[in-house]
Amino acid sequence: MRKNRILAAMAMAAMTFVSCSTDYETKAGRETERKVEDLLGKMTLEEKIGQMNQLSPWDFGELAAKVRNGEVGSILNYTDPELVDSIQRIAVEESRLGIPLLVARDVVHGYKTILPIPLGQAATFNPEIVEKGARMAATEASSDGVRWTFAPMIDIARDPRWGRIAESCGEDPYLTSVMGAAMIRGFQGDSLSDPSSLAACAKHFVAYGAAEGGRDYNSTYIPERLLRNVYLPPFKSAVDAGCASFMTSFNDNDGVPSTANSFVLRNILRDEWKFDGMVVSDWTSISEMIVHGFCTDATDAAEKAVNAGVDMDMVSEAYINHLAASVKEGNVSMNTIDDAVRNILRLKFRLGLFESPYVSTSQEVKYCDEHLEIARKAAEQSVILLKNSQETLPLSDRTGTIAVAGPMADAPYEQLGTWVFDGEKSYTQTPLEALRALYGDKVDIIYEPGLCYSRDKSMSGIAKAVAAAGKADVIIAFLGEEAILSGEAHSLANVELQGAQTELLRALSKTGKPLVTVIMAGRPLVITEEAEISDAVLYSFHPGTMGGPAIADILFGKVNPSGKTPVTFPRMLGQIPVYYAQNQTGRPANAEEMLIEEIPVEAGQTSVGCRSFYLDAGTSPLFPFGYGLSYTSFEYSGLDLPAGSIPRDGELTFSVNLKNAGKHDGTEIVQVYVQDKAGSVTRPVKELKAFQRIFLKKGESRRVSFSVPVSELAFWGYDMKYGVDPGDFTLWVGTSSANGLSADFNVY
Ligand code: NOJ
After folding, report:
1. Of 11, 148, 269, 305, which has fewest CB within 10 angstroms of its CB?
2. Which residues fall within 8 angstroms of residue 118, CB to CB, at 6 or more apart?
């Protein structure tokens, strides 16, 4: 059953762009529509516009008066269950029509028990644990009265300078589609009307991740074909997964703010995809259209947003203050208002709010053992082993003395990452605590952090850390970023390690002791030198509450790392944007390029090769997409893709032999990439089309089978139509986007 759901999710992410079915065909669906129409028929214009107004409460008395008067449809940021019930009681028992409020909160990667940030969850390549994590978060948040979360964030993020890459599932449309759908299933559960379910919200619609220069809120310039081929597929997959709501993004794309973009909100989301959920603006993104210079005043902004298809105004109050007059003046039709209100009421009925408006806190679920275990498993699976020279890891019980250094070894707040409004650091288990608790009876641990926090530039503690390292058999340096350095509005122009962290690592490496570097960060940092001078490197996108035990068990080999990079790691800052699925240039780089240090003085202009590469950074990133080592080694052989041609409506069916040829049991993420050799427009050099997590005991082999519908090779071509171009393709099956066994095939 579980397996079927995962396969179904993957199929959903296949982006076949069939229209999704609504539930109007079902009896329950028709009944909901009848109730919506019934209620709508009783509402005044003012009450309708009240439903379209979302507020973040300030003074309870003022809020209560507005709710009583039918001026509010939703609130965000109330998490005290008693307060939630008090305001809900006013909506239900004291407002004229008794319409319950929708209570929202950003439950992004956990509510109290914090999971790895979404980028870390994506590194698990495991939709099952991601779904469980979202379910856990829903259970905890709903126990405080929250019924709507602003997640998943499924923006494609290809620029690590952009702080919000932390909240994303990385650079790849397929992986993001699979993970986003898993989160939606987890938040929404089997039924939205279950009081422990949250309505999910796919955000930010759309292209927000392409902010120019990686600076948050910046303009984007994504043409329609790229929008459809790269940025829209995760959102289509969210609709197919039954996502209850969408949020518009802050950016303007080619001059049109998303909050007024009727092409994406009406033509694509409603007409093409048949979305019947609710669309909310981002926080004041309606009134910000005035600042953008796209609207003259709040009336203009409200009219443009509602006419474009934004149903609910998040806190700008442009709707509540201006829409009634706009309707009376004929600038907004009554039909437009009615449609928006239908979408809002439909969601309230689907959530069962009319039957059960109040918080049902029968059981204390926050930080329960089951949730801590889910967070621990997710953290374990999210850690990526980037380097392991001479089997430095895993450490053994006989290691002797370990010197623990670095500002992230014992930083309970920082390892939780961005978007943690409710999780408490007092519940965090740090790596230092976990090493002491789990392995302190077997090894001696000396802790000298060297730096107080990640931006600390003071060199005064480094000598002590080096002295401690001198007494140890192994050094573990915990480096990275504080939580505040990634997330919304936290973009960086330089994504190298902050403060004196590199100096600390250099000093530690000079001791000549085996050096293990563990990085906890909100983005892929440029760590070229740090990786070079370390013997082993573990990378953990901020791992959450249970990051400590997860990392400690990986260091000691109780858990074998299996995470893979969901995003490319640049070798140098100036390579950004660097992502694996780039279009093929007419002059692709080749291995013979001459790098800057090899170029003779007075070299001839064309002697270095006229190819697409950087003289100083070469041709490759530091770590490619899909990369991650294990303590064991996996061998691929016998790819059996049948030769010959496959029809456009056929299936690519193939299998590969995977052997655990190393000394440890372990999990491999088997990845399938495809290249369309010639299309009606240039095509990416590779695109991820499928993956599977395979656990093998040491010495064990298994044939891993795939069946990928040829329809998944479709794209929006020259004529802006969606379809598969017949012709030649190459397929790779392997351990990352950078290598694998390959076979050619033809589609007719
Ligand atoms: C602004 C952010 O862009 C969005 O992601 C978030 O959900 C809202 N604020 C509400 O907090």
Report:
1. 11
2. 108, 109, 151, 152, 153, 166, 167, 168, 169, 179, 183
CA of 283 to the centre of ligand 1 (A): 6
Q: How far is the CA of 281 from the centre of ligand 1 (A)?
A: 9
282 classed as catalytic: yes
Confidence of residue 595 (pLDDT cuts 50, 70, 90): confident
If we measure between CA atoms, which residue out of 125, 140, 153 comes closest to residue 10? 125
Q: Please check whether residue 405 is in contact with residue 450, taking contact to mean a CB–CB distance below 8 angstroms.
A: yes
Judge contact between 454 and 203, C-beta under 8 A.
Answer: no
Nearest-atom number in ligand 1 for the CA of 77 is 11
- Per-residue pLDDT, 592: 76
Of ligand 1's listed atoms, the one at least distance from the Cα of 153 is 5
Q: Is 150 touching ligand 1 by the criterion CB < 6 Å?
A: yes
- DSSP state at residue 116: P
Q: With a cut of 70, say whether residue 600 has pLDDT above it.
A: yes
d(CA 588, CA 580): 13
Q: Which helix (H) or strand (E) holds 176?
A: helix 173-188
Read out DSSP for 693-746? EEEE-TT-EEEEEEEEEGGGG-EE-TTS-EEPPPEEEEEEEEEETTEEEEEEEE
Q: Distance, CA 379 to ligand 1 centroid (Å)?
A: 25
Residue 16 has pLDDT above 70, yes or no: no
Select which of 106, 155, 282, 300 is catalytic. Answer: 282
Q: Angle, to 10 degrees, between the axis of helix 501-509 and the axis of helix 462-470? A: 30
d(CA 64, CA 60): 6
Q: pLDDT digits over 688-718, tens only?
A: 999 999 999 999 999 999 999 999 999 999 9
For residue 254, which of 283, 297, 285, 225 has the smallest C-alpha distance? 225
Q: Kindly tell me the sign of the dihedral angle through the C-alpha atoms of 345, 350, 355, 358.
A: negative
Where are the strands (E) in 522-642, listed by range? 536-541, 634-637
